[in-house]
Every structure is written in structure tokens, then in C-alpha cells.
Amino acid sequence: MKLQLFLSHNGVLSRRKALESIVAGAVEVNGRKVTEPSMEIDPGRDKVAFKGTPIASKRFEYIMLNKPSGYVTTCEGQFDQRTVIQLLPREFRHLRPVGRLDKDTEGLLLFTNDGWLANRLMHPSFDVDKTYFVRVRWHVTPEKIARLAEGIIVGGEKTAPAEVKIIRDGEKETELEVTIHEGKKRQVRIMLSSVGNPVLQLKRLRQGPLQLGNLRSADWRRLSAEEVEALKNMRPPAPEMEVEDRPAWPGSRPEGRRPGMPKRPDRGRRPGQAGHTRRDPLAWADEKKAPRPSFGRQPQRTERHPLDARPGKAPAFKKYFSNKSAASNQALRRKNGPKHA
């Protein structure tokens, strides 16, 4: 871990303040001043001090909870709501939930004070799979499963494809296993309701490499070292791109491009390529250019106002783009009055 991150993760300083303090020489590692923020340290072996005060390495906790229905995923509930924090012992109530489950949703909910790991689980770029047990009303036809697999329009946006498996089929109720990797609000409920199957029960069984297993409702447990290591080793999926087919015979490749490289977008012929013709610059002089628009000063224009033609009205002029000087304007006021100036 870098020294700058060690100070920020342990709550000593923010990242910016930690950078400034290290450069200023206020941090010591194993009794020696260090001015390099990116220095790698081992929190379990190296001793770090800030202005002479030793800094103890912060212990990260990872707790899995089987959330029951009727609890809101927040640290402080409103209007005497029951919160998931109340299900944890007092020594773990400083932890924060990773993601959220609806009040009526049950299942796996992770708590930790490791912000780096929590961000990896919640960031959409990692596409963490989440598997749910869903009990819905009515029979689910193959056509509806195909619609869910293609994606449903939710809030004006199309959801990512979902994997749907039928566990038990019936005329009045159907049990499904649904896997998604997005985290939109009430996504599973909205998707199934849109195909005509309201959700009766929703329970999260898996999140990434974590399995709920036989953990009873409202019970919790610590993650094992293997589970934590599996979470830290998660990698974002490779971006999908169109790749040319590799040649069928070994040792050969398309001219000018290596096998597996993405296709170059078609930007037309470039100078030096076959089929490119360079235009003669002297040929432009023979073309007739369109006249350029004039942006000069517009001439003064006056028009008689239509109301001045009425009988009994003194003639007056409606002035447009008046460029008269202040002296001429004062002369008009004295002659015709302020109304016609």
C-alpha cells in the first residue's frame, strides 16, 4: 500500500493533506523521514508516525448479514423505522452497508469499513453479478423469459440482459432464479411487473463470489480470508470490440494489421494510399466564389408610421437605426417635442 493511501485510509489525513504532509517531511517510516508519497509500505510490518505520533493500522471488518424483510438499508431510519444496523452487535455498528436492499427484500447484505473494496463492488464498471430467488404471481411463459433476457425498458433506458431460470412452474405462482449485474432501484421488481408477473418474494442469494449459504434470517457472520481475497481479486470485464477473424493458416496475417487487432474505422483514402487523388491547388482559382456577405454599417432608414395617416394627427416619423448625434436629437425635441425625438 502506498504511504499516502495508508494515511487517508486510517483516517489521519485526507489524500491531499497527506500528500502535502509527506512532502513537508512530517511523516516517518521506521524512524526515518520520508518525502515520497508513493512509497510502498507493509501496514503489518512498517511503523508509520505522523509528527512523532505512531499511527496504528486500521483493521478492516467484513460482515455478511442475511437481511430479513421489514428493515430499511440505512444507518439512521426515519419515523422509527427498523434499520439493518440494529441487527449487528454494537462493536460493528460503525460499518456501512455495501449497496442496498429494499425494505421488503431479503438476503445477502455486506457491511465493511473498507471503502476501496466497497467501491469495487458497487461500481458499474466491474459488472458484479447478483443472483436472486424470486417468487412471482402467475405462470411465466418462454416469451416473457426471452424478453427479460433481451432487456426491458425501465425509466426510459433499456436494462442489461438478465439470466432467468425456472425453479418451479405453476399456474398461480412461479419460482425463478434471476441474475443481473446492474443496480438500478427496484430493478428486478419492475422488470417482472412489466411482463405481467408481480413479485411476491425477493431474496438475494449471491453477490459476486459471495454465497449466502445456510445463514439464517437476521443472522450475521464474518467473511473468511478466502472470501475477502476473492473480492479483492475481482477484475472488470474486458470491453467488447469487433475483431477481425484470425487467418486459418499458421504464420500468416492480413497485410498491415496484426491478428486480433480491432478494425480501423473508415476515414476515406489518405495521401499515399491506392485510389487517393490529390487535388491541384491552382484549379481553385478558376472556380467562381460566392460573394461574401457585407457586415458594414447599415444606412439610416425612416418610414412613416401607419397611425400618422389618421386625420387630426400631426405627421411624425418612426425612426429605425438612428445614428443622429446628441445635438440633432436636442434640436428635434425643441421643434417637435419629446414625443417625436
Describe this structure in words.
With 341 residues, the chain is an alpha+beta fold. Among the domains are: 53 residues, RNA-binding S4 domain (Structural Genomics Hypothetical 15.5 Kd Protein In mrcA-pckA Intergenic Region, Chain A, Roll); 79 residues, Alpha-Beta Plaits. Helices cover 18% and strands 22% of the residues. It contains 7 helices and 17 strands. Helix 1 packs across helix 2. The longest helix has 11 residues. The termini are far apart. 18% of the residues are buried. About 8% of the residues have low confidence.
Helix content: 10-25%
Span between termini: 79 Å
- What's the CATH superfamily of one domain, by name? Alpha-L RNA-binding motif
Secondary-structure class: alpha+beta
Element order: H for helix, E for strand? HHEEEEEEEHEHEEEEHEEEHEEH
Shape: flat
Number of strands: 17
Q: What is the CATH first-level class name of one domain? A: Alpha Beta
CATH topology of one domain: Alpha-Beta Plaits
The CATH architecture category of one domain equals: 2-Layer Sandwich
Radius of gyration: 36 Å
Question: Mean of the pLDDT scores?
Answer: 78
- Biggest pleated sheet: 9 strands, mixed
Q: DSSP strand (E) fraction?
A: 15-25%
Put simply, the count of helices is 7
Poorly predicted regions are 241-254, 313-324
